[in-house]
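Late entry, zinc ion complex.
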Amino acid sequence: MKTAQKQQDEFIARCRRAGLSVTHQRLAIFEAMMANGDVHPSAEVIYHSVRERYPTISFNTIYKNLETFEALGIVVKVNPLYNEARYDVDVKPHHHLICRQCKTIVDVYDKKLDALPAPEEAGGGFHVENWTVQFTGLCAECQPAVATG
Ligand SMILES: [Zn+2]
Ligand SMILES: [Zn+2]
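Prediction complete; structure with ligand written out below:
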């Protein structure tokens, strides 16, 4: 597990390499991402977290920065299954369990899934580079709730 300090150092180095200035706001957005990393936060979650320190920051600023971070490979977007994009601070290949009820996203690390054979004929000469397996269903908490209606 990387330390928060190391992650922050990497973030700063990455911004600099991309010619992006490391503002207090950008750092706050990154810190909010890391603090909420476990839940694969939406832009909305990041927004509420950053606003505690920067009450005047706009949602649009958060959103634009997240898009920039994504372009730089600092975060990855979990496939937008449920309209609202969710961000993942773990950019290494891994897989997800997604609860269709409460939209909880849980990381799955499984070498077998990493080693899935890519389709040999991916249409039109498409070259597969990586993949994420998403298992959708109901988490333990949601199963009784759904069963009893
Ligand atoms: Zn659930
Ligand atoms: Zn993840």
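The domain at 4-78 is CATH 1.10.10.10 (Arc Repressor Mutant, subunit A). Will revisit in the morning.
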